[in-house]
């Protein structure tokens, strides 16, 4: 699916930002590729101003880099940068689990279990987009139950930096162990075992930190 298509006229800066971020995460704008605000504006059906603002925001978030008077390009996958982002996201999810487990009811457990079923089916079918959606839905149950808006904002801020690596992981059903780890997490949540839920959460996100070592540093 081509995400670089004309967007609506409302909240143009935010829409441009969301569209370009998704294009980077999905690889439609691949690592190292040079981007020009004029070309992007034409593809999105926008003026250059909201595109420039979106690129500036993406630069702050580490998804694009600019050399003044020279170029703006999508950042390459650098293992150290991905590891740093993954470690921050891991700590936030650990906090979410620690806070949310005592508050979860049957509906939350059911939502997590249904999300994991969708996730497992998507991974087996190599449907990366569906796997990512289901994975987000599962973990969002704990994030939402925690009620910590700063935690949620931090996860939202750093997840795009690791999403390109997640797409690689979820696209390989032979090596992806996340569904089994999710099942253990759900069991711990259902049992009200906060410490086990935190331990499993750590294991889930450590796998991404380790996978970051496969990122290209060139």
Automatic annotation (TrEMBL):
Domain of life from the UniProt record: Bacteria
Residue ranges of every copy of the HTH gntR-type domain listed in the record: 10-77
Keywords: DNA-binding, Transcription, Transcription regulation
Record bears the keyword DNA-binding: yes
PROSITE patterns: HTH_GNTR
UniProt xrefs under SMART domains: FCD, HTH_GNTR
Transmembrane segments: none
Gene3D superfamilies xref list: GntR ligand-binding domain-like, Winged helix-like DNA-binding domain superfamily/Winged helix DNA-binding domain
Database matches in InterPro entries: GntR_C (IPR011711), TF_FadR/GntR_C (IPR008920), Tscrpt_reg_HTH_GntR (IPR000524), WH-like_DNA-bd_sf (IPR036388), WH_DNA-bd_sf (IPR036390)
PANTHER family: FATTY ACID METABOLISM REGULATOR PROTEIN, TRANSCRIPTIONAL REGULATOR, GNTR FAMILY
The protein's name in its UniProt record: GntR family transcriptional regulator
């Amino acid at each position: 699916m081509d995400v670089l298509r004309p967007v609506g006229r409302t909240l143009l800066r935010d829409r441009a930002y969301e569209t370009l971020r998704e294009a980077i995460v999905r690889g439609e704008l691949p690592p190292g590729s040079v981007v020009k605000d004029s070309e992007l504006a034409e593809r999105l059906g926008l003026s250059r101003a909201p595109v420039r603002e979106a690129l500036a925001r993406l630069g702050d978030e580490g998804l694009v880099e600019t050399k003044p008077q020279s170029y703006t390009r999508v950042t390459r996958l650098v293992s150290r940068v991905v590891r740093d982002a993954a470690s921050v996201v891991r700590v936030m999810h650990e906090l979410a689990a620690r806070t949310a487990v005592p508050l979860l009811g049957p509906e939350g457990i059911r939502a997590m279990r249904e999300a994991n079923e969708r996730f497992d089916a998507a991974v087996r079918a190599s449907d990366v987009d569906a796997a990512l959606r289901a994975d987000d839905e599962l973990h969002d149950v704990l994030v939402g139950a925690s009620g910590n808006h700063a935690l949620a904002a931090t996860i939202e801020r750093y997840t795009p930096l690791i999403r390109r690596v997640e797409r690689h992981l979820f696209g390989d059903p032979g090596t992806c162990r996340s569904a089994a780890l999710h099942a253990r997490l759900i069991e711990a949540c259902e049992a009200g075992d906060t410490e086990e839920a935190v331990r499993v959460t750590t294991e889930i996100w450590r796998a991404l930190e380790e996978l970051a070592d496969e990122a290209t540093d060139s």
